[in-house]
Design brief:
4-stranded antiparallel sheet; 11 strands; TonB C-terminal domain-containing protein
């Protein structure tokens, strides 16, 4: 008998607004304008600048007083139509108060960004970033970790939500956590009904892992970017998973301080075949 169990975890990664073609849809550092991905360049520069703020004193406090092998920093703020940071919109999520203060000062003194194009209805931009730093026992410093390294080490950061995440219309309510839980449940119900195992070899026994990377756009529509599978022959399952997204209604898009943003997610699915 074949038993199929589907487990879904909706993991918040970040709110990202990408520059597409020649149309600048998000404020970026001026020195990143001519790079292949101005948004990615800007995010990486902020990450590197925050890394430089982790002094030996802050390192000692986090590693030995707080006992943390890794820690995360979340930051959010708006820049205006001229690319200037709007001070009252700054939010920092960090367990270490010294680093929190240093990051806030850093943001306050950023040079103006290159703002969105003039054809954008709202030229303000929402900047939301989340970084995780892992302690290196050899260098005795904390180093920024990529998503690949976090996965390799089995680290799952508990990122704090710094904005209003997208939710399905039927789940919308004043309680953000309740709305998010409802959205996850509806996604689980929708996806699990649409992934069938009849394409799998009858002699197969074990676990199949699928991970969909998708985005909820600023208009609430869904874009599936990629689907990975741990099996070599997985095309049928991947196609089923991709088609499952097409039946979903548009989301109520995410926003930060009233500025709509593009949200990216990973949606892992585990199928147990016995």
């Amino acid at each position: 008998m074949t038993k199929t169990t589907i487990a879904i975890v909706l993991t918040f990664l970040s709110f990202i607004v990408n520059a597409q073609e020649q149309r600048l849809e998000h404020a970026v550092f001026k020195e990143c304008l001519n790079t292949e991905s101005p948004t990615k360049c800007t995010s990486e520069k902020i990450r590197d600048d925050i890394s430089a703020l982790i002094s030996p004193e802050i390192t000692a406090d986090i590693r030995w007083k707080m006992g943390k092998i890794f820690f995360s920093v979340g930051l959010a703020f708006l820049s205006d139509q001229n690319g200037n940071v709007i001070p009252e919109t700054i939010k920092i999520a960090c367990d270490n108060k010294g680093l929190e203060s240093a990051v806030k000062e850093y943001i306050l003194h950023l040079s103006p960004f290159s703002p969105k194009g003039e054809n954008e209805e709202d030229r303000r931009s929402a900047h939301l970033e989340r970084y995780t730093f892992i302690y290196n026992s050899e260098s005795k410093t904390y180093e920024a970790a990529s998503e690949e390294i976090l996965k390799e080490k089995g680290i799952k950061p508990n990122y704090v939500s710094l904005g209003n995440e997208p939710v399905l219309p039927k789940c919308a309510c004043d309680d953000a956590e309740k709305a998010k839980k409802c959205t996850v449940e509806k996604l689980y119900e929708h996806i699990s009904k649409r992934i069938k195992t009849n394409s799998i070899d009858k002699n197969f026994s074990g676990q199949i892992y699928l991970v969909a990377s998708f985005a909820i756009e600023k208009d609430g529509s869904i874009t599936v970017n990629d689907i990975l599978c741990n099996l070599n022959d997985c095309e049928a399952l991947i196609n089923q998973y991709k088609r499952a997204f097409t039946g979903l209604p548009n989301f109520i898009p995410g926003n930060y301080e009233g500025v709509k943003v593009r949200a990216t997610y990973n949606l892992p699915v585990t199928i147990n075949i016995k």
